[in-house]
Protein backbone atom coordinates (compact mmCIF):
# COMPACT_ATOMS: atom_id res chain seq x y z
CA UNK A 1 0.00 0.00 0.00
CA UNK A 2 1.31 3.51 -0.82
CA UNK A 3 2.22 5.54 2.26
CA UNK A 4 0.13 8.66 2.73
CA UNK A 5 2.37 11.67 3.30
CA UNK A 6 0.91 14.87 4.73
CA UNK A 7 2.97 18.07 4.63
CA UNK A 8 1.75 20.78 7.00
CA UNK A 9 2.64 24.15 5.44
CA UNK A 10 3.00 25.26 1.83
CA UNK A 11 5.98 27.59 2.20
CA UNK A 12 9.22 27.12 0.27
CA UNK A 13 10.23 24.04 2.26
CA UNK A 14 6.89 22.22 2.11
CA UNK A 15 6.38 22.91 -1.61
CA UNK A 16 9.93 21.84 -2.51
CA UNK A 17 9.34 18.55 -0.67
CA UNK A 18 6.01 17.98 -2.44
CA UNK A 19 7.56 18.73 -5.82
CA UNK A 20 10.54 16.38 -5.45
CA UNK A 21 8.33 13.59 -4.06
CA UNK A 22 6.01 14.13 -7.04
CA UNK A 23 8.97 13.64 -9.40
CA UNK A 24 9.55 10.29 -7.69
CA UNK A 25 5.84 9.37 -8.09
CA UNK A 26 5.32 9.57 -4.33
CA UNK A 27 2.07 11.43 -3.73
CA UNK A 28 1.83 13.93 -0.88
CA UNK A 29 -0.79 16.45 0.19
CA UNK A 30 0.28 19.91 1.35
CA UNK A 31 -2.12 21.40 3.92
CA UNK A 32 -1.78 25.19 3.84
CA UNK A 33 -3.63 27.58 6.15
CA UNK A 34 -3.82 30.42 3.64
CA UNK A 35 -6.85 30.71 1.35
CA UNK A 36 -4.89 30.89 -1.92
CA UNK A 37 -1.43 31.57 -3.34
CA UNK A 38 -2.18 35.31 -3.42
CA UNK A 39 -3.77 35.57 0.04
CA UNK A 40 -0.74 37.31 1.56
CA UNK A 41 2.31 39.20 0.36
CA UNK A 42 5.28 36.82 0.34
CA UNK A 43 7.85 39.47 1.29
CA UNK A 44 11.03 40.55 -0.47
CA UNK A 45 13.82 38.82 -2.37
CA UNK A 46 15.96 35.83 -1.46
CA UNK A 47 19.40 34.91 -2.73
CA UNK A 48 19.61 31.21 -3.48
CA UNK A 49 22.93 29.56 -2.70
CA UNK A 50 24.39 27.00 -5.15
CA UNK A 51 24.98 24.36 -2.47
CA UNK A 52 21.51 24.55 -0.88
CA UNK A 53 18.57 26.44 -2.45
CA UNK A 54 19.79 26.07 -6.05
CA UNK A 55 20.69 22.41 -5.48
CA UNK A 56 17.16 21.72 -4.22
CA UNK A 57 15.67 23.43 -7.27
CA UNK A 58 17.87 21.30 -9.54
CA UNK A 59 16.55 18.18 -7.81
CA UNK A 60 13.06 19.57 -8.31
CA UNK A 61 13.79 19.83 -12.07
CA UNK A 62 13.28 23.58 -11.89
CA UNK A 63 16.79 24.96 -12.43
CA UNK A 64 15.98 26.40 -15.88
CA UNK A 65 12.78 28.02 -14.70
CA UNK A 66 14.67 29.51 -11.76
CA UNK A 67 17.23 31.05 -14.12
CA UNK A 68 14.47 32.59 -16.21
CA UNK A 69 12.91 34.21 -13.13
CA UNK A 70 16.02 35.09 -11.12
CA UNK A 71 17.50 38.55 -10.97
CA UNK A 72 21.31 38.18 -10.82
CA UNK A 73 21.62 41.98 -10.86
CA UNK A 74 19.81 41.90 -7.48
CA UNK A 75 23.08 40.67 -5.96
CA UNK A 76 24.35 44.25 -6.07
CA UNK A 77 24.51 45.58 -2.54
CA UNK A 78 25.69 48.65 -0.72
CA UNK A 79 26.36 49.39 2.92
CA UNK A 80 26.18 52.99 4.08
CA UNK A 81 26.76 54.63 7.43
CA UNK A 82 24.14 56.93 9.03
CA UNK A 83 25.71 59.95 7.27
CA UNK A 84 25.15 58.25 3.91
CA UNK A 85 28.83 57.44 3.26
CA UNK A 86 29.41 54.25 1.28
CA UNK A 87 31.28 51.60 3.29
CA UNK A 88 30.89 48.65 0.90
CA UNK A 89 29.63 48.49 -2.69
CA UNK A 90 29.48 45.12 -4.41
CA UNK A 91 28.51 44.96 -8.10
CA UNK A 92 28.10 41.45 -9.58
CA UNK A 93 29.39 40.61 -13.04
CA UNK A 94 26.56 41.44 -15.50
CA UNK A 95 24.29 38.42 -16.18
CA UNK A 96 26.41 36.16 -13.93
CA UNK A 97 24.71 33.13 -12.38
CA UNK A 98 27.88 31.98 -10.68
CA UNK A 99 27.04 33.50 -7.30
CA UNK A 100 23.81 33.71 -5.37
CA UNK A 101 21.22 35.21 -7.73
CA UNK A 102 18.21 36.83 -6.11
CA UNK A 103 14.62 35.93 -6.84
CA UNK A 104 11.40 37.43 -5.55
CA UNK A 105 9.84 35.15 -2.95
CA UNK A 106 6.50 35.35 -4.73
CA UNK A 107 8.06 34.25 -8.04
CA UNK A 108 9.84 31.36 -6.34
CA UNK A 109 6.71 30.15 -4.55
CA UNK A 110 4.69 30.44 -7.78
CA UNK A 111 7.33 28.47 -9.64
CA UNK A 112 6.98 25.63 -7.12
CA UNK A 113 3.17 25.80 -7.03
CA UNK A 114 2.96 25.71 -10.84
CA UNK A 115 5.07 22.56 -10.87
CA UNK A 116 2.56 20.61 -8.75
CA UNK A 117 -0.77 19.06 -9.71
CA UNK A 118 -3.66 21.28 -8.51
CA UNK A 119 -4.89 18.75 -5.97
CA UNK A 120 -1.48 18.58 -4.25
CA UNK A 121 -2.21 21.70 -2.17
CA UNK A 122 -5.25 21.86 0.12
CA UNK A 123 -5.73 25.59 0.78
CA UNK A 124 -7.65 26.87 3.83
CA UNK A 125 -6.40 23.95 5.94
CA UNK A 126 -4.90 25.32 9.14
CA UNK A 127 -3.63 22.38 11.16
CA UNK A 128 -4.64 22.73 14.80
CA UNK A 129 -3.73 19.29 16.15
CA UNK A 130 -2.17 15.97 15.11
CA UNK A 131 -3.16 12.93 17.16
CA UNK A 132 -1.24 9.65 16.93
CA UNK A 133 -3.37 6.72 15.74
CA UNK A 134 -3.06 3.38 17.58
CA UNK A 135 -1.76 1.53 14.49
CA UNK A 136 0.71 4.28 13.44
CA UNK A 137 0.32 7.54 11.58
CA UNK A 138 -1.72 10.56 12.65
CA UNK A 139 -5.20 12.01 12.50
CA UNK A 140 -4.91 15.65 11.50
CA UNK A 141 -7.50 18.17 12.70
CA UNK A 142 -7.98 21.45 10.91
CA UNK A 143 -9.52 24.75 11.87
CA UNK A 144 -13.18 24.61 10.83
CA UNK A 145 -13.64 20.97 11.79
CA UNK A 146 -12.27 18.89 8.86
CA UNK A 147 -9.91 16.04 9.55
CA UNK A 148 -7.62 13.76 7.52
CA UNK A 149 -5.34 10.80 8.14
CA UNK A 150 -1.73 10.18 7.15
CA UNK A 151 1.03 7.61 7.65
CA UNK A 152 3.84 10.19 7.64
CA UNK A 153 3.49 13.78 8.82
CA UNK A 154 6.07 16.42 7.86
CA UNK A 155 5.88 19.71 9.75
CA UNK A 156 6.88 22.43 7.29
CA UNK A 157 4.65 24.90 9.09
CA UNK A 158 7.22 27.56 9.82
CA UNK A 159 8.34 29.53 12.86
CA UNK A 160 5.28 28.84 15.01
CA UNK A 161 4.96 25.21 13.96
CA UNK A 162 2.10 23.17 15.41
CA UNK A 163 3.81 19.89 14.47
CA UNK A 164 6.99 20.83 16.39
CA UNK A 165 5.26 20.19 19.74
CA UNK A 166 5.03 16.46 18.86
CA UNK A 167 8.82 16.28 18.88
CA UNK A 168 10.37 18.98 21.05
CA UNK A 169 9.46 21.62 23.58
CA UNK A 170 12.41 23.84 22.55
CA UNK A 171 11.41 27.43 23.33
CA UNK A 172 11.95 30.34 20.94
CA UNK A 173 14.05 33.31 22.06
CA UNK A 174 13.70 36.89 20.80
CA UNK A 175 16.40 37.90 18.31
CA UNK A 176 15.36 41.35 17.08
CA UNK A 177 12.50 43.74 16.54
CA UNK A 178 11.67 44.34 12.90
CA UNK A 179 9.26 46.66 11.12
CA UNK A 180 8.57 46.67 7.40
CA UNK A 181 7.23 49.16 4.89
CA UNK A 182 6.50 48.89 1.17
CA UNK A 183 6.91 51.53 -1.49
CA UNK A 184 5.24 50.81 -4.84
CA UNK A 185 6.07 52.07 -8.34
CA UNK A 186 9.31 53.71 -7.22
CA UNK A 187 10.78 54.58 -10.63
CA UNK A 188 7.87 56.90 -11.31
CA UNK A 189 6.97 58.07 -7.78
CA UNK A 190 10.38 58.16 -6.05
CA UNK A 191 13.18 58.03 -8.64
CA UNK A 192 15.68 59.31 -6.04
CA UNK A 193 14.94 56.28 -3.83
CA UNK A 194 15.18 53.93 -6.81
CA UNK A 195 18.66 55.31 -7.44
CA UNK A 196 19.65 55.15 -3.75
CA UNK A 197 18.66 51.49 -3.42
CA UNK A 198 19.86 50.34 -6.85
CA UNK A 199 18.84 46.97 -8.32
CA UNK A 200 19.62 44.92 -5.19
CA UNK A 201 20.04 45.51 -1.47
CA UNK A 202 20.95 48.54 0.61
CA UNK A 203 21.88 48.40 4.28
CA UNK A 204 22.31 51.59 6.29
CA UNK A 205 24.05 50.55 9.48
CA UNK A 206 24.32 52.54 12.69
CA UNK A 207 24.89 51.69 16.35
CA UNK A 208 22.37 48.89 17.12
CA UNK A 209 20.13 49.94 14.22
CA UNK A 210 19.73 48.91 10.61
CA UNK A 211 17.63 50.58 7.95
CA UNK A 212 17.57 48.27 4.93
CA UNK A 213 15.89 48.37 1.54
CA UNK A 214 15.48 45.83 -1.20
CA UNK A 215 14.46 46.36 -4.80
CA UNK A 216 11.70 43.98 -5.92
CA UNK A 217 10.92 42.63 -9.37
CA UNK A 218 7.45 44.25 -9.30
CA UNK A 219 8.89 47.77 -9.39
CA UNK A 220 8.62 48.33 -5.64
CA UNK A 221 11.00 48.62 -2.70
CA UNK A 222 10.70 46.77 0.59
CA UNK A 223 12.08 48.70 3.56
CA UNK A 224 13.09 46.97 6.81
CA UNK A 225 14.01 48.37 10.19
CA UNK A 226 15.86 46.14 12.64
CA UNK A 227 16.59 46.89 16.29
CA UNK A 228 17.71 44.76 19.25
CA UNK A 229 14.74 42.82 20.63
CA UNK A 230 14.67 44.76 23.91
CA UNK A 231 15.17 48.23 22.33
CA UNK A 232 11.51 49.31 22.08
CA UNK A 233 8.06 47.92 22.75
CA UNK A 234 6.34 46.87 19.51
CA UNK A 235 3.41 49.16 20.21
CA UNK A 236 5.71 52.19 20.08
CA UNK A 237 6.68 51.43 16.46
CA UNK A 238 3.32 51.46 14.73
CA UNK A 239 3.71 54.77 12.85
CA UNK A 240 6.21 56.20 10.38
CA UNK A 241 6.74 59.11 12.82
CA UNK A 242 7.85 56.64 15.52
CA UNK A 243 10.32 54.99 13.14
CA UNK A 244 11.71 58.36 12.11
CA UNK A 245 12.38 59.06 15.81
CA UNK A 246 14.42 55.85 16.01
CA UNK A 247 16.65 57.16 13.21
CA UNK A 248 16.85 60.72 14.51
CA UNK A 249 20.02 62.45 13.28
CA UNK A 250 20.48 60.15 10.26
CA UNK A 251 20.99 61.62 6.80
CA UNK A 252 17.51 62.66 5.48
CA UNK A 253 18.25 61.02 2.10
CA UNK A 254 18.20 57.69 3.97
CA UNK A 255 15.23 58.29 6.27
CA UNK A 256 13.25 59.32 3.17
CA UNK A 257 12.83 55.55 2.76
CA UNK A 258 10.63 55.57 5.85
CA UNK A 259 8.70 58.68 4.88
CA UNK A 260 7.87 57.21 1.49
CA UNK A 261 6.27 54.03 2.95
CA UNK A 262 2.81 53.48 1.45
CA UNK A 263 1.22 52.23 4.70
CA UNK A 264 1.96 52.34 8.42
CA UNK A 265 4.73 49.91 9.50
CA UNK A 266 3.98 46.41 10.75
CA UNK A 267 6.37 45.71 13.65
CA UNK A 268 7.03 42.18 14.88
CA UNK A 269 9.51 40.22 16.98
CA UNK A 270 11.98 38.05 15.12
CA UNK A 271 12.60 34.83 17.04
CA UNK A 272 14.90 31.81 16.82
CA UNK A 273 15.40 28.36 18.31
CA UNK A 274 18.60 27.77 20.28
CA UNK A 275 21.45 26.56 18.01
CA UNK A 276 21.89 22.82 18.36
CA UNK A 277 18.22 22.10 19.13
CA UNK A 278 17.34 18.51 18.19
CA UNK A 279 14.80 15.86 19.14
CA UNK A 280 14.59 12.13 19.71
CA UNK A 281 13.30 10.34 16.62
CA UNK A 282 9.61 9.49 16.73
CA UNK A 283 8.15 7.20 14.06
CA UNK A 284 5.98 8.75 11.35
CA UNK A 285 6.73 12.42 11.97
CA UNK A 286 9.50 14.91 11.27
CA UNK A 287 10.14 18.61 10.68
CA UNK A 288 11.91 20.74 8.09
CA UNK A 289 12.80 24.39 7.59
CA UNK A 290 11.84 26.96 10.21
CA UNK A 291 9.72 24.36 12.02
CA UNK A 292 12.91 22.32 12.59
CA UNK A 293 15.52 25.04 13.09
CA UNK A 294 14.24 28.62 13.14
CA UNK A 295 17.41 30.76 12.85
CA UNK A 296 18.20 34.49 13.00
CA UNK A 297 17.46 35.81 9.48
CA UNK A 298 20.89 36.33 7.93
CA UNK A 299 20.27 34.64 4.59
CA UNK A 300 20.21 30.91 5.30
CA UNK A 301 16.67 29.98 6.46
CA UNK A 302 14.92 29.51 3.12
CA UNK A 303 18.01 27.96 1.54
CA UNK A 304 18.28 25.38 4.31
CA UNK A 305 14.51 24.72 4.30
CA UNK A 306 14.74 23.83 0.61
CA UNK A 307 17.81 21.65 1.13
CA UNK A 308 16.05 19.87 4.04
CA UNK A 309 13.19 19.17 1.63
CA UNK A 310 15.52 17.81 -1.06
CA UNK A 311 17.35 15.56 1.42
CA UNK A 312 14.16 14.26 3.03
CA UNK A 313 12.60 13.56 -0.38
CA UNK A 314 15.74 11.72 -1.51
CA UNK A 315 15.76 9.60 1.65
CA UNK A 316 12.06 8.71 1.32
CA UNK A 317 12.44 7.92 -2.38
CA UNK A 318 15.46 5.69 -1.75
CA UNK A 319 13.60 3.58 0.79
CA UNK A 320 9.82 3.98 0.31
CA UNK A 321 9.10 0.73 2.15
CA UNK A 322 10.80 1.96 5.33
CA UNK A 323 9.96 5.63 5.93
CA UNK A 324 11.09 5.33 9.57
CA UNK A 325 14.71 4.62 8.59
CA UNK A 326 14.58 7.29 5.88
CA UNK A 327 13.39 9.92 8.36
CA UNK A 328 15.98 8.91 10.94
CA UNK A 329 18.80 9.22 8.37
CA UNK A 330 17.46 12.61 7.19
CA UNK A 331 17.24 13.93 10.76
CA UNK A 332 20.78 12.93 11.75
CA UNK A 333 22.28 14.52 8.63
CA UNK A 334 20.11 17.65 9.01
CA UNK A 335 21.05 18.17 12.70
CA UNK A 336 24.76 17.92 11.82
CA UNK A 337 24.43 20.32 8.87
CA UNK A 338 22.31 22.92 10.66
CA UNK A 339 24.17 23.22 13.98
CA UNK A 340 27.16 25.26 12.67
CA UNK A 341 24.91 27.30 10.38
CA UNK A 342 22.63 28.22 13.30
CA UNK A 343 25.67 29.22 15.39
CA UNK A 344 27.03 31.35 12.56
CA UNK A 345 23.60 32.98 12.05
CA UNK A 346 23.37 33.92 15.73
CA UNK A 347 26.89 35.42 15.64
CA UNK A 348 26.19 37.44 12.49
CA UNK A 349 22.85 38.65 13.83
CA UNK A 350 24.47 39.83 17.09
CA UNK A 351 27.19 41.59 15.10
CA UNK A 352 24.69 43.35 12.85
CA UNK A 353 22.86 44.90 15.77
CA UNK A 354 25.88 45.65 17.96
CA UNK A 355 26.93 49.19 18.92
CA UNK A 356 30.00 48.79 16.65
CA UNK A 357 28.07 47.19 13.79
CA UNK A 358 29.36 49.41 10.96
CA UNK A 359 33.04 48.56 11.62
CA UNK A 360 32.28 44.89 12.24
CA UNK A 361 30.18 44.54 9.08
CA UNK A 362 32.77 46.18 6.86
CA UNK A 363 35.37 43.76 8.24
CA UNK A 364 32.97 40.85 7.70
CA UNK A 365 32.09 41.82 4.12
CA UNK A 366 35.67 42.34 3.13
CA UNK A 367 36.57 38.81 4.22
CA UNK A 368 33.33 36.83 3.40
CA UNK A 369 29.68 37.39 2.66
CA UNK A 370 26.18 36.62 3.97
CA UNK A 371 22.84 36.61 2.18
CA UNK A 372 20.24 39.35 2.24
C1 LIG B 1 13.16 39.50 7.57
C2 LIG B 1 13.59 38.15 7.09
C3 LIG B 1 14.48 38.05 6.02
C4 LIG B 1 14.89 36.80 5.56
N1 LIG B 1 15.76 36.72 4.52
C5 LIG B 1 16.18 35.51 4.11
C6 LIG B 1 17.11 35.41 3.02
O1 LIG B 1 17.54 36.39 2.44
N2 LIG B 1 17.52 34.17 2.64
C7 LIG B 1 17.06 33.03 3.27
O2 LIG B 1 17.48 31.93 2.88
N3 LIG B 1 16.17 33.10 4.27
C8 LIG B 1 15.72 34.30 4.70
N4 LIG B 1 14.81 34.37 5.74
C9 LIG B 1 14.33 33.14 6.36
C10 LIG B 1 13.23 32.48 5.52
O3 LIG B 1 12.18 33.39 5.27
C11 LIG B 1 12.66 31.26 6.21
O4 LIG B 1 13.69 30.51 6.80
C12 LIG B 1 11.90 30.38 5.22
O5 LIG B 1 10.79 31.07 4.70
C13 LIG B 1 11.48 29.09 5.89
O6 LIG B 1 10.71 28.33 4.99
P1 LIG B 1 9.65 27.29 5.57
O7 LIG B 1 9.02 26.65 4.38
O8 LIG B 1 10.29 26.44 6.60
O9 LIG B 1 8.60 28.18 6.36
P2 LIG B 1 7.63 29.35 5.83
O10 LIG B 1 8.18 30.02 4.63
O11 LIG B 1 7.32 30.19 7.02
O12 LIG B 1 6.34 28.56 5.41
C14 LIG B 1 5.47 27.99 6.35
C15 LIG B 1 4.12 27.81 5.68
O13 LIG B 1 3.27 27.09 6.59
C16 LIG B 1 2.03 27.72 6.66
N5 LIG B 1 1.50 27.39 7.99
C17 LIG B 1 1.92 27.86 9.18
N6 LIG B 1 1.22 27.29 10.18
C18 LIG B 1 0.35 26.43 9.59
C19 LIG B 1 -0.64 25.55 10.11
N7 LIG B 1 -0.87 25.44 11.43
N8 LIG B 1 -1.37 24.80 9.23
C20 LIG B 1 -1.15 24.91 7.88
N9 LIG B 1 -0.24 25.75 7.35
C21 LIG B 1 0.51 26.49 8.20
C22 LIG B 1 2.31 29.19 6.44
O14 LIG B 1 1.15 29.88 5.99
C23 LIG B 1 3.41 29.13 5.38
O15 LIG B 1 2.89 29.10 4.08
C24 LIG B 1 14.39 35.61 6.20
C25 LIG B 1 13.49 35.71 7.26
C26 LIG B 1 13.09 36.97 7.71
C27 LIG B 1 12.14 37.05 8.89
From TrEMBL:
GO terms for molecular function: FAD binding; monooxygenase activity. Its main location: cytoplasm. SUPFAM superfamilies: FAD/NAD(P)-binding domain (SSF51905). It catalyses: a tetracycline + NADPH + O2 + H(+) = an 11a-hydroxytetracycline + NADP(+) + H2O. InterPro entries: FAD-bd, FAD/NAD-bd_sf, TetX_monooxygenase. NADPH binds at residue 40. Residues 4-167, 283-318 form the FAD-binding domain. Belongs to the aromatic-ring hydroxylase family. TetX subfamily. Consists of an N-terminal FAD-binding domain with a Rossman fold and a C-terminal substrate-binding domain. This is Flavin-dependent monooxygenase. It comes from Actinoplanes digitatis.
